[in-house]
Fold each of these.
Amino acid sequence: MMVGYGDDPHAAGGPARHIPVLLAEVLEALSPGAGEVIVDGTFGAGGYTKAILASGASVVAIDRDPDAIAAGRVLEQQSGGKLRLVQAPFSTLDEHVESADGVVLDIGISSMQIDQAERGFSFRADGPLDMRMAQAGLSAADVVNSFKVGDLARIFGFLGEERHAGRIARMIENRREKHPFERTLDLADAIETHIGRAPKDKIHPATRVFQALRIFVNDELGELAKALFAAERVLKPGGRLAVVTFHS
């Protein structure tokens, strides 16, 4: 059994990084053991991977975020060859492993990504309107500043379940002609000013729009569908698949 992966303050970003909330439940579902191969399709800060390695299993850990992969290199070096990191979307997991005893996917955004204002996932602090997990391709600013109003309304309504989707899309279209949206707080404040916020509201008026933009920019629903098929292709008979998802 391999132990001690959580002790190094530099491993996978250090102890202050994200700890999976459902770690015990995922381990129970996967039931990893010595000699097995488990695919961690959303490596993140390495919470699942560390626990799986401690069981004696080997791990192929995948993440499309280059920051996550870079932070995990120390853990990879410590693993004695039992951990292989791959920078790629989890939809391609079957391109990086031929067979596996288990697969875990933790869908959505991690707290460490939210905490990095420069990544633009949140309006807790001001940052560039980015939201790209892979740090490449179309950004949230590109979408907000160039998509037609009808397309924006559909994105906000379908992916964010935002009931004011049309109003917000029209506001964005009118505002961006003179002042394009480039910062997270700029967009969040503009939405709050336009829609308003009642004392009884539990979430900020921009929350659902930000969720919708993030899901769209990263094609999260498409990636998930592909990943589920990919997991089915690599899992051995009797293999286990654990999928964790949460939206507020």
Amino acid sequence: MLNLVIVEDEEIIRRGLVCTIDWLKMGAKVVGEAANGKEALEVIEATKPDVILTDIKMPVMDGIAMTEALKAAENPAKIIYLTSYADFSYAQRALQLDVTDYLLKPVNEADLTNALAKIDGKREKQKQEELSWDEGLRAAYHTGNPYVQNVLKRIEEGFKGHLSGETIAEELGVSFSYLSRKLKEETGLTFGGLLTQYRLQQAIEMLQTGTWRVYEVAEQTGFGDYKNFTQAFKKYLHTTPKAFMQEITVGIKL
């Protein structure tokens, strides 16, 4: 079930969206509403929604400014713009802000259903790829498949360097497509997903010691550089390595 906040300055339209759409049928639940972006930021902070359905043109703070504030705060909620303005500049700005969808008023329920289904599908995929931080790969994934066991062992032993699924498959005498299929069946992850999982697991352990700089951790765990490391860290953990270290420092001081 997706938790949803609706942001719309016209009360009649906002109440219509809240009360007349069969959200339950779409796999969603309205947990809050607001009349402008500024008010919405407070509602979003209190309700922690998965999705924000928002108008663009609003008084006090418009949808663009609200989105920029959410992105700056690294809020993970997905945003769908709902507007009567079929203006390319709005659509272009929405793309720049990585907005999930851009729908025109009056809302077409089929389009809205598709937009929410797309978000829910990505969320379920992310859940399947959640990391197991407390165990090594072979301990986390109990498998009797010798090819999969071999891949997990190679990742654990060689994660600091360059690893290629294609090369490993060739060395094992099987096709990469076969190996990929077996990995997915046994672990739910791709080769790249498993490698990233283990690298991040090792990176977190290093960061928790408080003795390594972020760029050093990136180099020592196979990410190569700060940018790649930060992107992977943020994708899976919804925060940055720097913010993670700051939280640890605060915890130690407390």
Amino acid sequence: MARHRPASEGGYQRGEETRAAILLAAVAVFGECGYERASTRDIAKAAGVNPPSIQYYFDSKEGVYLQCVEHLITLLWQKMGAAVDAAERAVGDGTSSDQMLIEGAIGILGAVLSTTKDTTQMGAWRVFFDRQQAGSCPPSATVIFERKFKARIDSVMRLLIARLSGFEVGDDRTILHSMALFTQGLAFRAHKSRLLSALNWKEVNHKEMEMIRGIVLAQARFTLEGLARQS
């Protein structure tokens, strides 16, 4: 992380505004180009700053990317924190019924598939997130994302599935069910062009996302109820 900070109060505020502008521009550039193809010159141009500003505030392209990931994690917890907390309470209570456990899992998946209409800024973050999930990022970013976000999600989903299915938490089937449930909604964004072509849609707006959300959650509920019946 960059060590430089403007000295005066006014300079500090301008510095933070410049830093924020670079981050927003970087999210859009990384989302459009991917990490490897993006350059600090591209980011500086999009932010309306001189290229040396990138090194001044972030040290390197990787430094900018890691700060984007840190901010993305903050946004994701704002969106998903309450649902994950509720699921952890349900799975931590030995008296929770299967239905309570299922609702805990559905709550997490519903948060992932939030139907809040994208602003231009949030749309850029979603594209950035999709590339991050696809592995178009430096290894250091994957480590941060796993440690500060994904590990907790994986843990609670596996615990929920283990309770419902009777499998051990570390059983391959538990892990595969967890991965399948968590990624099925994201797949619609990762393969957006195929989705639009197959359904003759022009765009995925609020109405279309509601339909996707309803189908994915219904399918997830069917799977979870099936696991509970088989246990």
Amino acid sequence: MLIGVGRLQQYVVVHHMSDTFRLPRVGTVDEPLRLAVLISGSGSGMEALLRHQAATRLAGGCCHQTTVVISNVADVKGLARAIEHDTPAEVIVLPAGDNSSERRVAHEQAIHVRLCELGIEAVILSGYMRILTNDFVRKWQGRLLNIHPSLLPDFPGAHAHRDVLEAGVDTTGCTVHFVDMGVDSGTIIAQRAVPVEPEDDENSLSERVKQVEHRLYPMVIDAFCEGRLQISNGQVEIA
């Protein structure tokens, strides 16, 4: 099923969503929704969001603000980029220990506690390279977004560009979706296609897809925070 998207000027594939959409409130210019952005690396997508928020504020106001950027890796470029945009940036690394499951749970609990301390209302994953546990997803489900560099459900996982090139397809793209208990399996909100050129390698394809991601993700976040993502009969629509 395809529906018009209005301000996004594209079409959205509507998929079934069984869980309740739990955005706590609609963001406004006077009281923007408080976002946390989780990163693991360069933070180029996060920086695109910060620039979008700044430009939107100058143009009349933005209904969301990035309250904090959290990285699970120290000394990555994304932290410096956040600071350059006057956005608080923090590092919460995986704790030491021998039990990987316990370390994972403790790490996510530390992130969750910090998000609650800061009054975060929604979480934006932007190049965050850890798979979240079911418990963390359950706490934030309906308020947890991700962008993936392929046209899901095709080519999920951490090596989408490599898999696209190996498959020999002529079109890839990016997908904004709700995060669920699986890997890149959550309800799709919006997608945009990107052609695969004959001379592409992983780096060139990644850079072209990123350019599209950096435009699409902020626009979807606008719709999300303005309350224009609606659940009707188990489906997501953009009003």
